[in-house]
């Protein structure tokens, strides 16, 4: 049972979320730093507010901060006095890094009501004009909690996603999230960019570019989309990206050494090391559906129970009652 | 005017080539190490021969070696005595590395009639069953020559590709080809594999895999296709791949250092360095057609003239007469 949801920022992510929730019958109130999307948003059933004060006065159960990360400190500072006499409102966001946002929420005195969220949804576009409820089709969200998170606030955000948006969630601590995001997105974006930099520096770049086929196109696609947005994302997760870049540099140097030494068995071992991922991908691709099960969530240590579930490759699709989740069992490595 | 073409090996590449040539009215004779594709090939208008002797006796203008690279020394040794009294037959191939094949042709005493070729065509399949003439739609071929290449033999191979197959060519020396192929394919394949190895070694691999979206899928796609074929390709171009892996490792370490030091301006410069490639890609994508021009090919130094043309981003689409090519002017960096 999802109540009123407040959206801060009607860009690609926030606008798509607002339209999806409204389309699924959820009461949505929204504020944007400029009112240009308001006419269309109102036509979509989204109640637009002129100020953050009016947004808070609409008494949403949760406020979802969909503003750019760089605006987060200002938005949080603006919300703080408004939320002072409204302890029932839970705060969440959609940022691609989670530790930093929690720190900002704490710095604004709002840490006790914050639950992090990050939808695995997006494309190379931006802005309200690109907003589309189908952006969230079959999306997975990471929901991040810490040891002091109020379970009822977690449940507000979790059921907003499962019931309101119709998506799956995995529950993580901020560090696990930010390290995993560095692994499958932030670091690979740097690698992709390094590839096009290497080509650009190559004296035979036009010959090489002419010979480029599917491999090159696939591996450099993300380097072509807004490098400044990528740079910001990488810098916000700098510590984790740094560690992974050094590990990747060591792996590439190892292969260079094997090739230099003509060590074919070491090269063979390198090419075989990723087999668990190849098997996982083949199993995931071949699956026509996933078995569901129920997961009891204890009052004490619920964070760990949910983290271990995520590590086993499970995802939450809904709640039977507050302490019993429905989970989907997916292939695991 | 393309005469008779002999194909050695009816796998994905050779089978597709034979079917395409036959479909375009070229007389095609073929030999395969096992006769299982012969019935279908004959139905496609390909004249299949039981032995290499019979293939050579059909007097093709060019023999295209489409066998696996590892079989090349044996095939060349088998052809040598057969070709001794047939100096008019030109030898070419479709291998993904060119210096090694030329060395093997020379070692077999066939270097004087060898012209290298490498079509930028292929997919993750293999074998005659996957052979399809459309594999060559809009393909570019690299044709490789050295200072001793007989121009008439070059022209035999070049017109086989432009007139026979209906494709474009760029003319390179072996080293330029093998370095460029390492840049846009062989090295990136190693990088893609290193990414899945890093994930596999990650204690939170299931969490990271669950969060994976388009970036990860794109960048790891080539790591999933036959790692043993990739390994062979990398080892055949080991020297060039080694150099590029060390350069990539240095680039990734540089970014790690910038992030460690909080050097935002260096991170910005890193993300801007590939802008010439971004512009090139945007221009290529936006082009609705390419201007054509004529290129005079001198008797002396023709190899350099054609290499410089390739470096300017031009590709040969045909020949008006033996010393005058039609070229397509494409965007260049």
UniProtKB/TrEMBL annotation, chains A, B:
PROSITE patterns: PDH_ADH. It comes from the Bacteria. Gene3D superfamilies: 6-phosphogluconate dehydrogenase C-terminal like domain (1.10.3660.10), NAD(P)-binding Rossmann-like Domain (3.40.50.720). Keywords: Oxidoreductase. One of its GO terms (biological process) is tyrosine biosynthetic process. One of its GO terms (molecular function) is prephenate dehydrogenase (NADP+) activity. InterPro entries: 6-PGluconate_DH-like_C_sf (IPR008927), NAD(P)-bd_dom_sf (IPR036291), PDH_C (IPR046825), PDH_N (IPR046826), Preph/Arog_dehydrog (IPR050812), Prephen_DH (IPR003099). Residues 3-289 form the Prephenate/arogenate dehydrogenase domain. The keyword Iron-sulfur does not apply. SUPFAM superfamilies: 6-phosphogluconate dehydrogenase C-terminal domain-like (SSF48179), NAD(P)-binding Rossmann-fold domains (SSF51735). Belongs to the prephenate/arogenate dehydrogenase family. This is Prephenate dehydrogenase.
């Amino acid at each position: 049972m999802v109540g009123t949801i407040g959206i801060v920022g009607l860009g690609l992510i926030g606008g798509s979320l607002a339209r999806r929730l409204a389309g699924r019958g959820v009461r949505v109130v929204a504020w944007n730093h400029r009112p240009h999307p308001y006419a269309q948003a109102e036509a979509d059933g989204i109640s637009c507010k002129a100020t953050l004060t009016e947004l808070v006065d609409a008494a949403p159960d949760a406020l979802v901060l969909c503003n750019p990360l760089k605006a987060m400190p200002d938005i949080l500072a603006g919300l703080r006095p408004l939320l002072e006499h409204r302890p029932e409102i839970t705060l969440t966001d959609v940022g691609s890094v989670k530790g930093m946002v929690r720190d900002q929420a704490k710095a604004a005195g709002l840490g006790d009501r914050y639950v992090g969220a990050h939808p695995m949804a997006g494309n190379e576009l931006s802005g309200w004009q690109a907003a589309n409820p189908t952006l969230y089709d079959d999306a997975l969200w990471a929901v991040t909690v810490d040891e002091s998170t109020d379970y009822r606030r977690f449940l507000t955000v979790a059921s907003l996603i499962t019931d309101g948006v119709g998506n799956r969630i995995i529950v993580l601590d901020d560090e696990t999230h930010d390290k995993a995001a560095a692994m499958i997105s932030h670091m690979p974006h740097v690698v992709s960019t390094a590839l096009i930099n290497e080509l650009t520096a190559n004296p035979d770049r036009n010959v090489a570019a002419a010979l480029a086929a599917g491999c090159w196109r696939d591996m450099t696609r993300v380097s072509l989309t807004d490098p400044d947005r990528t740079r910001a994302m990488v810098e916000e997760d700098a510590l984790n990206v740094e560690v992974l870049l050094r590990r990747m540099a060591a792996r590439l140097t190892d292969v260079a050494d094997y090739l230099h030494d003509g060590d074919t068995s070491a090269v063979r071992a390198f090419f075989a090391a990723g087999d668990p991922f190849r098997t996982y991908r083949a199993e995931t691709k071949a699956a026509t559906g996933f078995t569901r099960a129920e997961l009891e969530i204890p009052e004490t240590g619920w964070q760990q129970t949910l983290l271990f579930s995520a590590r086993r490759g499970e995802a939450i699709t809904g709640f039977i009652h507050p302490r019993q989740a429905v989970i989907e069992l997916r292939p695991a490595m």
